[in-house]
Write a structure and sequence with these properties.
The complex is a heterotrimer. Chain A is of the alpha/beta class. Chain A contains eleven helices and ten strands. In chain A, strand 1 and strand 2 form a beta hairpin. In chain A, helix 4 crosses helix 5 and helix 5 crosses helix 7. Chain B has a two-stranded antiparallel sheet. Chain B has a two-stranded antiparallel ribbon with strand order 3-4. Chain B is elongated and about 75 Å long. Chain C is mostly helical. In chain C, helix 5 crosses helix 8, helix 6 crosses helix 8 and helix 7 packs across helix 8. Classes of the chains: A alpha/beta, B mainly alpha, C mainly alpha. At the B-C interface, helix 6, helix 9, helix 10 and helix 11 of B face helix 1, helix 6, helix 7, helix 10 and helix 11 of C.
Amino acid sequence: MTAALEVRGLTTRFATRTGHVTAVNDVSFSVSPGRILGLVGESGSGKSVTGFSILGLIDEPGEIAAGSVLIEGEDMRGLSAEAQRGMRGRKVAMVFQDPMMTLNPVLRVGDQMAMAVRVHARVSKKAAWARARAALDTVGIPAPDERLLSYPHQLSGGMRQRVAIATALLHGPAVIVADEPTTALDVSIQGQILAEVRRLADETGTAIVWITHDLAVVSSLADDICVMYAGRIVESGTAEEVIADPRHPYTRGLIQSVPSLHEPGRKLPQIPGSTPQLSHLPSGCAFRPRCPRATEICATDPPDAGQGHRLNLCHHPLGAA
Amino acid sequence: MSGAVHDVATTTGGTLAVPSAAPRETRGERLRNFWSDYRQSPVAVVSLIVIVVLLFISFGAALVTPQDPYDLASLDWLDAFLRPGTEGSGGYVHWLGTDNAGRDMVSAIFYGLRTSFVIGLSAGALALTIGVSIGLTAAYFRGPLEAVLMRIVDLQLSMPAILLALVVVAVLGQGVGQIVAALVIAQYAYFARTTHGAATVERGKDYIEAARSTPLPTWRVLFRHLLPNVMTPLIVVATVQVASAIALEATLSFLGVGLPLTEPSLGTLISNGFKYIHTDRYWLSIYPGLFLMATVVAINLVGDQVRTVLDPRQSR
Amino acid sequence: MSGFLLQRLVQAAIVVFAMSVIVFVGVYAIGNPIDVMIDPGASAEIREGLIRRYGFDQPLWRQYLMFVSNVFRGDLGTSMIYNIPVTSLVFSRLPATIDLVLVSVFIATVIGIPAGLYAGYRPDSLGARAIMALSVLGFSVPTFWIGMLLIMGFAVQLGWLPSGGRGDVGTLFGIRTSLATADGWSHVIMPALNLSLFKMGLMIRLTRAGMVEAMSTDYVRFARAQGLPDRQIVFGHVLRNISIPIVTVFGLELGSTLAFAVVTESVFNWPGVGKLIIDSIQQLDRPVMVSYLVLVVFLFVLINLVVDLVYARLDPRVRLRSGRA
């Protein structure tokens, strides 16, 4: 079965006053239809830029320097700008973090969704509204006709995010990239949205890339996990494998610092130091300054110590000798 | 919030650590950073040089010009309407020609420039003082005082400056003091509005709360703590307003409701030259106009660049 | 919505009232109107008669009330210089000013907004930079100076256009206007262009700033992620968003244009109300001064009111919030 999304060797960099900054460094992963991939990392790890790169939304002064992004086997990078635009919204869609900002405040919800329908489908306005209504139904929004006539500011945060997800589903894309979609929402609403998304992936067979810094969210939602640090994927595997048996010291640090995955009453460990600046990365392993297991050899690029889908970029992986 | 702290004496004889309003970087560093950013635009640097030169020649007019155009004794009406570049009866070349009374245009322009600068700068300074005080007071004391003050300011802002100036001149008559009053009334509202806006953002911050909880007198909190942090947008507004004041005064004088003929500014000179616009004697109005344009445009360009540099959205 | 409207109306009324008092008191109380309006050489009898007729023997507040009641009756006093009622004087000159302002506003909008849109869409292009540079000139260089240059260039040197005056007036839709004749157009085009420059500069800058800000918002990114082409994004999404502040400024600047017409009318000898006020200030024709100023303030407040209402109507966030409250 062809993967819905396959990313190979993606490298995205930005030109700055002091030279190039590589935000995404040789990133590879794949997502099969109906699977949810959690892309986890702190801010500055390159996860959002990865998401934008998949959609081809990188503007000056950034550029995708290398690699390929295959949506159902078709390489986005090989397409013309016009053809890329045709893929966006249709084969691959994106949901952003703050729905108040992603929906145009002066247009009705229905108008915006209808515009999104009609850009890829030659249908009448009436038909477009009907499709929008159906999409709202799919994501579980009550009284969809009223919602279509409302303006974004009249809806609650959770409702707006559902509208954004519904918009992403309008053309039945193979892949949806969701960039921290629940970070701006209440925890209770978060739970609802997560359940909704899980259901959608199962029912529609859409592959979902869920970008987040919140490991707790990912542990309950995702099928597979990729952990990013300083622009590279340092560990990947299925969700059970990565959470229960982390191999990379950074992953273990992340897991240990999540309160809910811990016994109450115990001191909460934290990863010392702070996220590195991409313009000032140390040589070799980027995690070296903060790693309790670092030795001299870590000054050279770490090899992949894992096997198959279980990637692990470390000289001294956990669980080994 | 800013990190730096200094000691303040309390009434009971001890000291209290109060967060300073001073920024983290030293003054010198800030100035140097500002200048290196400012230099990014060659146009703005040239404008700054132009302004400095204009200030020199206007305030040093007595030293630089061959003639004092206000000294009636030095004028000879036989020298009237000399073309630019011809020599007059005084034995020197009139580089920009002479006007209908035999005044050397160069001298008249430099003196006129001085008048324009003096009026523009003093009106600007006065408008700034009044506007900033009103804005700070409104933001600090809040409540009905703030509502009333800012309502008045808003209403005034919605009226065009020239209209306000005309009203003041209609009511007070003509003259130097009246003109300055007209300009101040037309312009203080911009300062008040900007200060109020910035102060409203600052007043909620911790260091103001901390300063208020100490026995510092109110005016000190206002001027030594709140004001320095509100300075940034004010500098931009101030440059633009000075240019605006100069232009407004020139317009009023041109219309004949501005400065009296005994204190000609560039506007008056242009107005004088306007009478001869249909003849070949272009130099009576073109040159004063060029200087006026150079002054106003240069100040605006400097203000533009200052705003770009100080814009917090474009921090490095 | 109606509560909003009422609130605004009350505020507007207060402003007009306050300004009328200020102007009235200022003009009539400061300086001695009696000596100005009545020839000092007149006999004592005539003086007494005139004083009583003009009401100068009454306390100031009574004079003001007389003034206000006169205003409501449509009587704004009589011009001392022209000796005709101020109302007819003003209304005879008003059409000329309206002609000028209309053409000027049209020019400013039709050129200003598209230029600003382009400058904001491609902010680093050569065209955009040129447009921005010209816009600085537009609103910083004093209007009267540019007017003079225009006259010197097109009228005196090239002889293409007349240098002043209004030219022939024709009738269009039953209104006497300069725009109905070719000669009228040749007279109005330079002053209108001159008057439009300030507003054009502002429109360009405002539109550009709105575009630049809008193009970097999340909803534009979201629209791109949906696959919308740029053209549709600009005209379907962005334009709706930035039109709100643009319309607001447009309306407010309408009043400004009216005020600046004073300058342009003087430079081009255009027989409108603007020139009237300048003349009346110079000649100390007080009835005209007071009436003109009160009239203009009234117009202003009216325009602001309309703009407020239009803004509330256009921005759904304001409209629906005030309606529900």
